[in-house]
Design goal:
Largest sheet: 5 strands, mixed
CATH architecture of one domain: Orthogonal Bundle
Family: Belongs to the cytochrome P450 family.
CATH class of one domain: Mainly Alpha
Radius of gyration: 22 Å
Shape: globular
CATH topology of one domain: Cytochrome p450
Protein name: Cytochrome P450
Cofactor: heme
Bound molecules: protoporphyrin IX containing FE
Structural class: alpha+beta
Helix content: 40-55%
InterPro entries: Cyt_P450, Cyt_P450_CS, Cyt_P450_E_grp-I, Cyt_P450_sf, Cytochrome_P450_Monoox
Number of helices: 19
CATH superfamily of one domain: Cytochrome P450
Pfam family, one: p450
Length: about 450
């Protein structure tokens, strides 16, 4: 049986591609308001994309029928940067890598990183001057990179962090261009961007392999960082660990997956607080009541309930991962429609999280909405900032802890204000959902 699926009208050859490219968020949102549970787009003459708006169907794709799919095109291209790590690998290989890496991300393990997160937040603020305007998005990228570098390698390797940051930037630009380009120019062709990418990748490999070699030589004992855990991980079936190349791919994966996503979330939090003084005031009251003047710790997190609600609500309105895409590899039936190999299924957190069916006043910033039993009343995949199923974000606890600790640390000392009252801040949906053109905010020291 095949149900009827509709979608916005497109042009003869390019289909809906140009409208989508012009303003992806607006395009998918208005399509979701005009069509049913499944919306059909055509990108170019042959590529069929179906956006799922029914949480139960999303559950089938990500959980019960996940074996019929592989990751979408964008992530396949990302292999140029992150190799065949946990984010991009498929099937048995993914399962093995996931098993090997899971313990390193256990809630108790990552609790030890709380101190690093707070200290890096304090370090960042040591550069801030009362009254100045700063690009807060740039600052958030810097601090999350410093945090992931230190939790990965144990010590603050300042030069290494800058180098890795630059290489990731070049790599992600290369991936974004390649994913959206019609012509596939192989890396062996020495164009300017190919050369820049190859060179930065080589420098990066040298840095990471040197760190792996040093650690293998000196032993992992006594080190409490992610790198030691990756090196020490053994598969329970065959007792084997990871090769240096696998460790390199996983290190890069964690840098890429765990850096910009959290930075974006922090930027959106500060933007929302700057535009909602009454919510900021409630946050200040909580920080005073729980912390007085001292810095937060992991042990404070269960008591920082409003802080956590702000993080949760920000991930609803501005989910750093704004869509999850899957490509069908084996014919599959979902919701009465049979999808064919090569079809793309798109599941957008951005659109779902602003759906009237599940959220009152969906475009408003109301952290209190998560206070009661909202998450029990709505279907699981009506709120899924970290995805779901066997490929759910492995760093979700890490990210939630980092966001809450950075928020508490920074808000205790500074208020962040719009530069001008009519300042426009728009989301830009690239690989992740970031503020377009950065986030200039005026910083004011709290009395
Ligand atoms: C607010 C911050 C974050 C958000 C919104 C986020 C979101 C996501 C989402 C939606 C996925 C699933 C993608 C898919 O199914 O196609 C994912 C996967 C992943 N994330 Fe995150 N993430 C965040 C932070 C982090 C951090 C801090 C780390 C590591 C320290 C991390 C590491 C990963 C990895 C390794 C995967 C791949 C898991 C797998 O395929 O088994 N993420 N993330």
């Amino acid at each position: 049986m095949n149900v009827t699926i509709s979608g916005p009208k497109g042009l003869p050859l390019s289909g809906n591609l140009l409208s989508f490219r012009r303003d992806p968020l607006q395009f998918i949102r208005s399509a979701s308001e005009e069509h049913g549970d499944v919306i059909h787009f055509r990108f170019g003459p042959k590529r069929h994309v179906y956006m799922l708006m029914n949480p139960d169907q999303i559950k089938e794709v990500l959980v019960s029928k996940q074996a019929h799919f592989r990751k979408g095109k964008g992530l396949q291209v990302a292999k140029a940067v992150v190799g065949d790590g946990i984010l991009t690998s498929e099937g048995k290989k993914h399962l093995r890598q996931r098993r090997l890496m899971q313990p390193a991300f256990h809630r108790d393990r990552i609790a030890t990183y709380g101190q690093v997160m707070v200290r890096q937040g304090v370090d960042l603020m040591s550069e801030w001057k009362d009254g100045e305007v700063r690009d807060i998005h740039h600052d958030m990228m810097k601090v999350t990179l410093a945090i992931i570098t230190e939790t990965m390698f144990g010590k603050s390797i300042k030069e290494g962090a800058d180098q890795i940051g630059k290489a990731i930037d070049i790599g992600l630009k290369y991936v974004a261009n390649k994913a959206s380009s019609f012509i596939d120019i192989p890396l062996s062709v020495p164009t300017k961007s190919n050369r820049e990418f190859v060179e930065s990748n080589e420098t990066l490999d040298k840095t990471i392999f040197a760190l792996i070699e040093e650690r293998r030589k000196n032993g992992e004992q006594g080190q409490n960082d992610l790198l030691s855990m990756l090196l020490a991980a053994r598969d329970e079936d065959d007792g084997e660990g990871m090769t240096d190349e696998q460790v390199r791919d996983e290190v890069m994966t964690i840098f890429v997956a765990g850096h910009e996503t959290t930075a974006n979330t922090m930027s959106w939090i500060f933007y929302l607080l700057a535009t909602h003084p009454e919510i900021e005031k409630k946050l200040h009251d909580e920080l005073t009541a729980v912390l007085c003047d001292r810095l937060p710790t992991v042990e404070d997190l269960p008591h920082l309930t409003y802080t956590n609600l702000i993080v949760q609500e920000t991930l609803r309105l501005y989910p750093a991962a704004w869509t999850i895409n899957r490509e069908v590899v084996e014919e599959v039936e979902i919701g009465g429609h049979t999808y064919q190999p090569g079809d793309t299924l798109m599941m957008s957190q951005y659109v779902m999280h602003r759906n009237h069916r599940y959220y009152d006043k969906p475009d408003e910033f109301i952290p209190e909405r998560f206070e009661g039993d909202l998450l029990k009343r709505i279907p699981t995949f009506a709120y899924f900032p970290f995805g779901g199923g066997p490929r759910v974000c492995i760093g979700n606890n890490f990210a939630l802890m980092e966001a809450a600790l950075l928020l508490a640390t920074i808000t205790q000392r500074y208020k962040l204000r719009l530069e001008t009252p009519d300042q426009k801040v728009e989301p830009e949906p690239l690989v992740t959902l970031r503020p377009k053109n950065g986030l200039p905010l005026r910083i004011e020291k709290r009395g």
